[in-house]
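Fold this sequence, please.
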Amino acid sequence: MESKLRKMFETQYEVNVVAAGKNWISGFSKDNRRLNYARAIYMEAIELIDSYPWKWWKNINQEPDISNAQIEAIDIWHFLMSLVSLEVKYRGEDKNSIIKNSVSFYMNNMKFKDSFKDLSVIEISEHIAKHAITLSSSSDLEERKVALRLLIGAFEALNETLLNGKLIEIYNGKSILNKFRQDNGYRNNTYIKVWNGKEDNVYMLELITQKNISNDSLYEELDKIYKTINNLS
């Protein structure tokens, strides 16, 4: 478990370098914007909740969009790893030390998932949003530490309840999809995100969870589908 977690934290560190610059670990992007990962988490948690028919005044009997909920959970995981690294780092630490301490802190606080057992996906997501809001708005160090521990516990509960233990496969798949997007014009708005009525996220998820495509073959499979559906040579 520790080695797999370390690999994901390493991958996310490099993803952040590409997205926000090599000094992202300072909490600011390359254009000096604050990297509010806690805010990103609670916004994703809200989107996850909206994957379920909770609105009693509108479509209350429709089926939940489980695929979208799983994708939102993985987006939360991207931001949670980044937040943990920012919160536990010490001044002057190098990359390897930051990752080592982040993984250790995360594993030590996974036990708090028991605080959220027997809760529904929506209820767990509400706790994720609650603790992320505290981390986004509070300057009290002890309050922030407690909120981060409970946030980790809530996410682990979500992993078991919603992702069925497939966090690693789906996270790696989303990272491969993100690279595929960048390679095909995402930054300059030429990338086509909706393929034949379905988002690329859904295709990625189906390839992994239904067709058992390995991460090694995923990029090639996405490329085939993208070019075929969008009539690209």
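The chain has a mean pLDDT of 93. DSSP finds nine helices and two strands in the chain.
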